[in-house]
Every structure is written in C-alpha cells, then in structure tokens.
Amino acid sequence: MSRLEEEEQKDLAVWLNNANVLWCHVPNGVQGKGKKAAYLGAKLRAMGVRAGVSDVLIFTPAPGRAQGTALELKRSNKKKARKGKGQPEFLAAMKELGWATSFCYGYLEAVDWLKSLGYRSTLDDHR
Fold this sequence. Notes:
- By secondary structure, the protein is an alpha+beta fold.
- It has a single domain (about 5-125), classed as Trna Endonuclease, Chain: A, domain 1 (3-Layer(aba) Sandwich).
- Helix content is about 35%, strand content about 15%.
- It has helices at about 5-15, 35-45, 85-95, 105-115, and strands at about 25, 55-60, 70-75, 100-105.
- Helix 3 (about 85-95) links the parallel strand 3 (about 70-75) and strand 4.
- The protein is globular, with a radius of gyration of 15 Å.
- The relative contact order is 0.21.
C-alpha cells in the first residue's frame, strides 16, 4: 500500500525539526466539498493564499548558498502523485530568486536531496 503525501510530510517534518533550520509547511489545500469548503477557499484566497506555493519552505540557507530552499513534496508512488496548479511556476520563480528548488517524491527522496545541499539532521545517524 502506498503512503499518502500527508504521511510523507509528517516524516519530513520530524527530520526538519531536528535539522536546526527555520522552516514551515504551507498547507495550501482546502479539504471537503460544498458551501463550507467554497467559503473557506474564498476566505483564504482573500487573505493571500496562493495556488502553487511549495509544501516546504526552508528559510535557513543551505551551506554555501545565499537563499533558502523550496521543496514540493509528493507521495512516493509517482503514478498516484500529481503536480498541482501553479506548482512548477512557483518553483521556477523561487529558483530565479536564487532559492534551491525541487519536486521530491517521498520523504526519503526529499531527505536525500536536502542532504545533497548540505543540510543535516540529528536523525541522520539513525536512518
């Protein structure tokens, strides 16, 4: 059974919380259907929520970099993972600003990519 993106995100959060970096997850989707979901979606857009903003923004630059890191996390099963509206464009814009950017499929791929940039977590010795 393939893991949900939510599960991958929770594992990545644990790794990042042990990496001594300033970061956040951007929960950019409205769950549900009907009037309540439509109302909440409109309210969030009015407050500045933008389609395509990456799941994970790391404000602490990787060693040797001047800017932060934007990571769009997808579930590890690529057949079930889809890029959302505006996500490629957002990552391209962040890259133009000097940020490191990537689509990663699953927690393990995300951690490997972050480590390739020079980020480290206290959990690395336990993996």
